[in-house]
Fold:
Amino acid sequence: MATLQRIRNHGVFLLVIVGLAMLAFILGDVLNSSSSYFNKSREYIGEIEGQKIHYTEYENAVEQLTEVYKIESGRTDFDEDMHAQIRNQVWQMLVAKYTLQNQGEKIGMDITSDELYELCAGANPHQLITSRRMFAGQNGQFDRNYLINFLASIEIDAENAEQQANIKQAKNYWMYWENAVRLTAMQEKYVDLIKNLITANNIDAKYAAQAKQTKVSVDYAIKPYYTVADSLVKITTNDIRKIYDERKQLYKQTPNRDIAYIAFPIVPSEADYQLTEKAMQDIEEEFRTTDEVALVVNSNSDIMYDGRNYSENNIPEAYKEFAFAKGAKKNDFMALTYDEATRTFRMARLIDCGFSAPDSVQLKGIATREGEEDQDFGWFTEADLQKNIAEPAFAGKVGSRFTVALGMEDRTFEITGLTKATPKAKVAIIEQTVTPSSKTYAAIYNQANQFVVNNQDEEAFRAAAQEAQLEVESATNLQKMGNKVADLKSSRQIVRWAFNAKEGQVSDVFECGDKYIVAVLTACHDGEYRDFEDVQSSLRYEALNRKKAEYINKQIAAAKTLQEVAESFGGEVRHIDELTEDSYRFGSEGMEPAAIGTAFATAAGELSKPVRGNQGVIVLVPADVQRTDAEIDYKSEIAALNARTAYSLPYQLINNLEQNADITDNRATFQ
Structure:
């Protein structure tokens, strides 16, 4: 199918989400089930504003978004992190959909079918549509003709099963972006509505203008906290707890877990090395002499033989000197060697050499249907192209054309450019990386399992690890829907265990990529706020500075002038010109809002009270406050104030909806 192939041909670019577009996602109706109420309740992955989310709905959404990523990125090899990102993104889309939908119903706001058509396929489509590269012309800009042709192509009757599958995939792709536009437009409507309610007024403008027009010059002295030795002050737990109580709202938390764990690396044994080396030795003579090179290589090597031509620029470094050596000739052989760094045995045979060919070719797709246009695809190396395209492309001349079969249709290409020919070599490579055998896996697993059997609580766990010289790692603040523990592969299973275990419990053995992991649950945090014990160390520094401020204040209690204060500080009097009420910084001292406020609250010429600042204790003497009675441009001031909030307002509004929504997240039960 030409339209879908066009998507694939442009699959080299990464998925770009415009603004908050990825919040947009409309999904199918919740599937009905004939099971009992109890069983049905177990089928729901969550509930958002009274809307139950069926597990099938969620999984269908994950599958659809995965397909969109595949089409847009041209990749299919997504790792576990990418899959976790997609799953989390789907949940956020669902939250955005149902919270905004609920709000829209309350205020009578929606996107009509006519509006949606104009936004998707009208004269001026939404940016989400115009930014899709598959709808771009040869100049790289959006071309509505491509969009119209695409929409027509997904409505045709399929002639066979393959075409039917392609049309279905293309329809799903379009439906995703159409629904994305709908919800994004809904969001934009909502933000515009609220934005007109949240606006600065004349009083705000007056204060903002006066803050800029009101200035004062200040003389001051500062005693940095770091100049007072820690040993001169004493802090208690109550001092730290006082700060904790002041900041408690900042320590809200969701349930989380702390664990400690040890790793048993799964590495090859000596027997595995010997087995791999013998396997390579056994085929060395056959590889050296066979006429069936591809068969021998592809049956024994980690690197498949596809007959490609290497240049000095793209041949693996280990074979460059061999393939391009002076005097190299056909059927030269590189004997078996071993690379310790990569645990790889390797050997190679020179299939052909002494010839030259271009490194890259520039191709253009020739239109074969009415309404289509030729399409420039750009430059490709031989490795970028599938074999049936690469062979005629690199064998032809500039201006020549060739036709190849791609799926169910033929495509014609024109060679529009070739780089200068460079020396090439055709090399067959056999590499085998030493990997752990099943016997090795079993031996290491048994070692880890024996550790679990012998150590059933945290104390025994840590003591045994120390005795065996095994490093104990820690992972804190594990979230219920967390996908990983530190950088451990496939470690979601550990998170699930941690939320079902009891404090002090030792886990079974987990296989996490190239490691076996044994963990112990060290702490459960289920309270609304983080425990004081968990944060007191981070507050100790501030408590220490508060005590130092008290110490400094006693030092200068008798000082009557700023000069006396400065001498007491062991410093000098400093000066700031034209400090304004809306200043963000106190001269070169940085962010010191308390000092700025004190400068305007203290009478001219008077010595201020000591200010406990962020960096130290500050004492100041302000001059007369200067006010400019310039006429206030209320319109400009209001516009400036609104502009300050315009950037963050959309996020704040949507986030506020979600924060106040009634949401139950049961995904951890299913993942």
